[in-house]
Amino acid sequence: MALQESLRVSLTPPELELIACQQPIEIVPLISMERTAFISGAYGPLRPPHKATVPIWMALNLKSKKKCHIVAPEWLNVEFLQDRLGRETSQPGFSDLPFRFAEVSKVLLDVASDDLENPDKIRSLLKNLREARQAKCRDGLGTLDHSELSLPNLCSMEINEIRPFFVQSMHLLTQLQRQPPTAP
């Protein structure tokens, strides 16, 4: 979502992707590697064909060098996404998805689409899911009042997108509430 400079008070999508890349993911290494220490922790040992759990940033790095296959998270498949899309379009609330599903799915589709089953269908479902959730966000912001905004199960990207509008709207509502009523 493109915003004017004055409304850019939130993190950018690439910054959110960087944060999401700290999450663990399973890989199937194609090389052997002893336990290796990094600033963020020690990972390994890697022994093919046994699965290992590493941060996404490390999995992406190994994948780009053709040294591993990434095991897709359990939620990144056609059946799960079709189910969630059905819930989004048939139920009033937001369906339960991983908090950073948008960022994780984007980086995995960008770098490791060959490790995913039916990546084109997954892209299409994620796009439809995002559009359905954005429509619900717009509807939720339309019912904004000064006391609260309840939109449970929003993901980090969605929260980040509505934050500037929400903050500005709450500021205006606060100002309007403080003004004394004008006499007719």
From TrEMBL:
Classification via CDD domains: GINS_A_psf2, GINS_B_Psf2
Record keyword Nucleus present: yes
Keyword presence, Nucleus: yes
Matching InterPro entries: GINS_A, GINS_bundle-like_dom_sf, GINS_Psf2, PSF2_N
GO term, biological process aspect, one: double-strand break repair via break-induced replication
Keyword terms, alphabetized: Chromosome partition, DNA replication, Nucleus
Gene3D superfamilies (UniProt xref): 1.20.58.1020, 3.40.5.50
Cellular component aspect of the GO annotation: GINS complex
Sequence ranges assigned to domain DNA replication complex GINS protein PSF2 N-terminal in this UniProt record: 12-71
Subcellular location: Nucleus
Similarity section: Belongs to the GINS2/PSF2 family.
UniProt name for this protein: DNA replication complex GINS protein PSF2
Gene: PSF2
